[in-house]
């Protein structure tokens, strides 16, 4: 990739240290160009973005994680953040899920500081995006990504399929009576809908 021969981990760390500043500078320049394009097309006060976090390795304790906010119209990255548990840039001690929300919080604060109004964010259902987003943009909307929603629904359906005779909580709605029956185990309760 870089035209370098195989090297030790110490040599690789030195290469990364030397390149880090330049890569970060290039990424920030690229994001600034995307934000400039958003402003020029008149979407800065009604911007729609997508957000997601990603990790070096799957699981709750990845050493490195990053997040990005993409312009929904073009798909280009407008903002990014990074968390690492080790090395020179060490800036995180918690879980990967916690890092994702911390990065979203950082990105949303920068979006607001830059004068953008985020009308809508499209995000996965894996995190507490809604509460973090609403702290910064209470007038905005969170839309859950269809792919993540479909995966979550599929997992729920698989659970029902495996446990065919076990339904712990289930709602039955009667339109004519405007009532909802909540079945919990063997008991049945009536609740009036507002």
At the first level of CATH, the class of the largest domain is Alpha Beta
CATH architecture of the largest domain: 2-Layer Sandwich
Helix content: 25-40%
**Overall pLDDT score:** 81
Distance between the termini: 62 Å
Into how many domains do the coordinates divide? 2
- List the strand order in the largest sheet: 3-2-1-4-5
Structural class: alpha/beta
**Tally of DSSP helical segments:** 4
Largest sheet: 5 strands, mixed
What shape does the CA trace take?
Answer: globular
Secondary-structure blueprint of this entry?
Elements: H1 9-40, E1 47-55, E2 64-71, E3 77-84, H2 96-113, E4 118-123, H3 129-136, E5 141-144, H4 146-162, E6 169-174, E7 179-184, E8 187-192
Parallel strand pairs: 1-4, 4-5
Antiparallel strand pairs: 1-2, 2-3, 6-7, 7-8
């Amino acid at each position: 990739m870089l035209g370098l021969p195989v090297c030790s981990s110490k040599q690789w760390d030195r290469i990364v240290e030397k390149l880090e500043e330049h890569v970060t500078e290039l990424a920030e320049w690229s994001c600034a160009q995307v934000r400039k394009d958003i402003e020029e097309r008149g979407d800065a006060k009604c911007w729609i973005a997508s957000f997601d976090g990603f990790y070096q390795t799957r699981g709750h304790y990845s050493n490195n994680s990053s997040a990005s906010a993409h312009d929904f119209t073009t798909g280009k990255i407008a903002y990014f953040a990074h968390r690492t548990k080790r090395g020179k840039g060490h800036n995180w001690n918690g879980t990967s899920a916690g890092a994702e929300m911390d990065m979203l919080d950082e990105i949303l604060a920068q979006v607001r500081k830059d004068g953008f109004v985020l009308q809508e964010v499209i995000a996965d259902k894996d995190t507490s995006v809604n509460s973090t987003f609403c702290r910064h943009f209470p007038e905005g909307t969170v839309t859950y990504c269809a792919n993540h929603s479909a995966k979550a629904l599929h997992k729920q359906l698989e659970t029902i399929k495996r446990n065919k005779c076990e339904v712990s909580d289930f709602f039955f709605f009667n339109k004519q009576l405007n009532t909802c029956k909540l079945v919990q185990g063997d008991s049945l309760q009536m609740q009036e809908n507002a």
